[in-house]
Specification:
The complex is a heterodimer of chains A (111) and B (118).
Chain A: E1 3-6, E2 11-14, E3 19-21, E4 23-26, E5 32-38, E6 44-50, E7 56-59, E8 62-65, E9 75-77, E10 86-93, E11 99-101, E12 105-110
Parallel strand pairs in A: 2-12
Antiparallel strand pairs in A: 1-4, 3-9, 5-6, 5-10, 7-8, 8-9, 10-11, 10-12
Chain B: E1 4-7, E2 10-13, E3 19-25, E4 31-37, E5 43-51, E6 54-57, E7 64-66, E8 76-78, E9 87-96, E10 105-109, E11 113-117
Parallel strand pairs in B: 2-11
Antiparallel strand pairs in B: 1-3, 3-8, 4-5, 4-9, 5-6, 7-8, 9-10, 9-11
Classes of the chains: A mainly beta (111), B mainly beta (118).
């Protein structure tokens, strides 16, 4: 079946630290992979995506590379800011309209 | 501006009452979804609809009902049969991104409705 596994949180970092949030997946076929961000009390926003192996998605300083050999899509940012504090969700879509989400990783960035 | 609207933002009900959550989109997306989110947990799919007048149960449909009479609207009713209805409810819709972006689907979310039942 299809599933997404994210690293457990919460993650707490100091401002300007390097961020990695791990995500691995299991999927039939050739999935597209996504990272979504959720700020407190809001819906999810699409952060970045990659649709095929070795693609790199990037947005707002965040990036993630689709690694088929390790079935991973780790989220990285070189220098986090307080405003990056949120919950991050990894997700996949294989065929059609079904999406599968990880359980989310909470990030807190302290000044 | 196109988007998904959910109303109200906060909703309070007494136990035993049915309540309907609104979801409207003007993105011209065919598919719409309802998810439930509990504190510290991921998203669980309640119902989804790929076209007007058709919908399918998700993983946790018991105690919920939906309708899809118009493409733009996908209301969710939380019935008194739902044993633990207090949660954050998210509506979403999906579009197919064009060939220039790898021909994948993308899902977009509304701002959510927080339902509290006492």
């Amino acid at each position: 079946g299809n599933s997404v596994t994210q690293m457990e949180g919460p993650v707490t970092l100091s401002e300007e630290a390097f961020l990695t949030i791990n995500c691995t997946y299991t999927a039939t076929g050739y999935p597209s992979l996504f990272w979504y961000v959720q700020y407190p009390g809001e819906g999810l926003q699409l952060l970045l995506k990659a649709t095929k192996a070795d693609d790199k998605g990037s947005n707002k300083g965040f990036e993630a590379t689709y690694r088929k050999e390790t079935t991973s899509f780790h989220l990285e940012k070189g220098s986090v800011q307080v405003s990056d504090s949120a919950v991050y969700f990894c997700a996949l879509n294989t065929y059609g309209n079904q999406f599968y989400f990880g359980t989310g990783t909470s990030l807190t960035v302290i000044p | 501006d196109g988007g998904i609207t959910q109303s109200p933002k906060y909703l309070f009900r007494k136990e035993g009452q049915n309540v309907t959550l609104s979801c409207e989109q003007n993105l011209n997306h065919d598919a719409m979804y309802w998810y439930r989110q509990d504190p510290g947990q991921g998203l669980r799919l309640i119902y989804y609809s790929q076209i007007v007048n058709d919908f399918q149960k998700g993983d946790i449909a018991e105690g919920y009902s939906v309708s899809r009479e118009k493409k733009e609207s996908f209301p969710l009713t939380v019935t008194s049969a739902q044993k633990n209805p207090t949660a954050f409810y998210l509506c979403a819709s999906t579009r197919k991104a064009g060939p220039g972006t790898g021909s994948s689907y993308e899902q977009y979310f509304g701002p959510g409705t927080r339902l509290t039942v006492t």
